[in-house]
UniProtKB/TrEMBL annotation:
InterPro entries: Kelch-typ_b-propeller, Kelch_1. This is Uncharacterized protein. GO terms for biological process: protein ubiquitination. SUPFAM superfamilies: Kelch motif (SSF117281). Keywords: Kelch repeat, Repeat. Pfam families: Kelch_1.
Length: 227
């Protein structure tokens, strides 16, 4: 399942049920503290990534239960409708999505079979042209990574490089179109969550280290700069 915030509400979209990928969507309203059903996506998908741009929710890639996909959809909360968007260039699941300015960025992921090649490549979606454009690739191939936004830059955190879980962190500067190394996590992990708290830093939450699911939380302080 992947999540994003739009119109002051939290959305959870897709994922895997007992035996199949899901197209269902649920919405959490902090005012009522309740989850409610929202309009379902056009396609079932798990291991996709979701980002919010211009008040709309974009869900990209993933696995439809039979194969990985290049497709994406956009949800307009005002109209309550999902619509297709242009396909990303490569089939990929377990990717990450982040939003900076007026663009949506998709990074990493994997294709083909379990244990198949991971991606270091990245693409940017421009809603004005409805096109994906390649941007600089990460130094490390990774799937199951998390993406965080802090001080106008995107942080790619953890993941799996095809050989094992990684602790490395990279930071992307959209103006320079360049990645740099940032301080690594103390412990390797994939399928984690990342969030930025203003004035505090970037938090990495949970995940899996190859042996067990994690409940630990780690913080990259805003005072730490890329190496």
């Amino acid at each position: 399942v992947c999540g994003g915030r739009g119109e002051g509400r939290l959305y959870a979209a897709g994922g895997t049920g007992e035996s199949q990928a899901l197209a269902t969507v649920e919405c959490y309203d902090p005012a009522t503290r309740l989850w409610q059903p929202a309009p379902s996506m056009g396609s079932a998908r798990s291991f996709a990534a979701l980002g919010v741009l211009g008040g709309r929710l974009y869900i990209i890639g993933g696995h439809d239960g039979k194969s990985r996909t290049t497709s994406g959809e956009v949800f307009d909360p005002q109209q309550g409708l999902w619509s297709p968007v242009a396909d990303i260039s490569s089939t990929r699941s377990e990717l990450a999505v982040g939003v900076l300015g007026d663009r949506l960025y998709a990074f990493g992921g994997m294709t083909f079979r379990q244990g198949g090649p991971r991606f270091a490549t990245a693409e940017a979606w421009d809603p004005r042209t409805s096109k994906w454009t390649p941007v600089a690739s990460m130094a490390c191939r990774r799937s199951g990574l998390a993406m965080g936004v802090n001080e106008g830059k995107l942080y790619a955190v953890g993941g799996h490089d095809g050989y094992g879980r990684v602790a490395s962190v990279e930071v992307y500067d959209p103006f320079m179109d360049r990645w740099q190394s940032a301080p690594s996590l103390p412990d390797p992990r994939c399928f984690l969550g990342v969030a930025c708290v203003a004035g505090e830093g970037l938090f990495a939450v949970g995940g899996h280290n190859g042996d067990q699911r994690l409940k630990t939380v780690e913080c990259l302080s805003e005072s730490l700069q890329p190496a």
